[in-house]
Amino acid sequence: MTADRLLPALAAAVRHATHPATAVPGPRGACACGAEDGLLADRDDGTVVRHGDFVAKAHAPDTDPAALALRLSAAAGLPGILLPPLNPTPADLLGRRVTLWPYGGPVDPDSPDAAPWEAAATLLARLHRAPAPDGLPPMRGPVKAARAMARLRAAGPHPAAAPVLRAWAALPGWARAEAPMPDTMTLCHGDLHLGQLVRHPAPDGPWLLIDVDDLGVGDPTWDLARPAAWYACGLLPPDEWLRFLTAYRDAGGPAVPADGDPWPALDVAARALTVQTAALAVAKSAAADRPLDEAQQAVVDACDRMSAVPPELARGFAT
């Protein structure tokens, strides 16, 4: 029942943000301004509805309200890096924590050659160099990886599960959310991918990072790990990886040394993101009773290779 009521309630909330003096809750899609309510995302970890220049997000049901408030306050204090919320205090709506945001234009998935790798890397470097606010909770990247593994185990037997489980077992405890991270001071995004960038104001404003659900203090290598993993698995062309890495270094990012081989620093986190990606792929394959596609098989194969070679456990440079 709550799920059935959530979308119209979110639509009413974002309409009120768009038209605070005149908005009246009504049937989804009907508004005097002519704009329709748009469903941008509807997943277990969040539902997002747009109306005009604003969006409303219902965060995951198990969201810690105090931690979310700290993360919202951090975003509000980092203009030019993170998209700021309309209000740093989350609201309660049908038992879910709801936040309101300006709408930003997303990365165009149909134009891979125009992917803003330099902008993403520069924003990350600036985020990693910003002082972390007092009391900010840990970055949730390793927690999400552990949840992906739990989802894999719950999916039941699958022929591709074994190499993923072996690769997971070879990781150090911090990457499995079983021990403190080696860095507990650096401000991190926690779930960096190109879907976490928008232009604001849309469509031609500067790029900004979005999604504070995993924001926190921790090891900044995690924020570089997804493109690093894609590159290592052959899913990201070398020139795009080099553009990203070079821009991060040029902006003074602290996660890797300023020159030389970045892999001793990135290896553990890149392995962890590879395992997380593979775990989700296998779980979805099992649930849908369909074979892995080419990209999914590539990350499973990478897990198989990784399990035979111990990860780099030393950062290899001074932080």
Structure description:
The chain is α+β, with helices and mostly antiparallel strands and 319 residues long. It is built from 9 helices and 10 strands. The chain has helices spanning 2-18, 65-76, 117-129, 141-154, 161-169, 221-232, 238-250, 263-288, 294-306, and strands spanning 38-43, 46-51, 54-59, 91-93, 96-102, 105-106, 186-188, 197-199, 207-209, 216-218. The strands form 3 sheets. It has a 5-stranded antiparallel sheet with strand order 1-2-3-5-4, with helices on one face. Strands 6-8-9 form a 3-stranded antiparallel sheet, covered by helices on one side. Strands 7-10 form a two-stranded antiparallel ribbon. A hairpin with a 2-residue loop joins strand 4 and strand 5 (96-102). Helix 6 (221-232) crosses helix 8 (263-288). The model is unreliable at 314-319 (pLDDT under 50).
Number of helices: 9
Estimated helix fraction = 40-55%
Total beta strands? 10
Extract low-pLDDT stretches: 314-319
Mean pLDDT: 92
SS-based class: alpha+beta
Strand order of the largest sheet: 1-2-3-5-4
Give the overall shape. globular
Q: Cα-atom Rg, whole angstroms?
A: 20 Å
What series of H and E elements makes up the topology?
HEEEHEEEHHHEEEEHHHH
Proportion of residues in extended strands: 5-15%
Distance between the termini: 50 Å
Largest sheet composition? 5 strands, antiparallel
Quick tags:
319 residues; five-stranded antiparallel sheet; 9 helices; disordered C terminus
Summarize the entry for a quick read.
The protein has 319 residues and is α+β, with helices and mostly antiparallel strands.
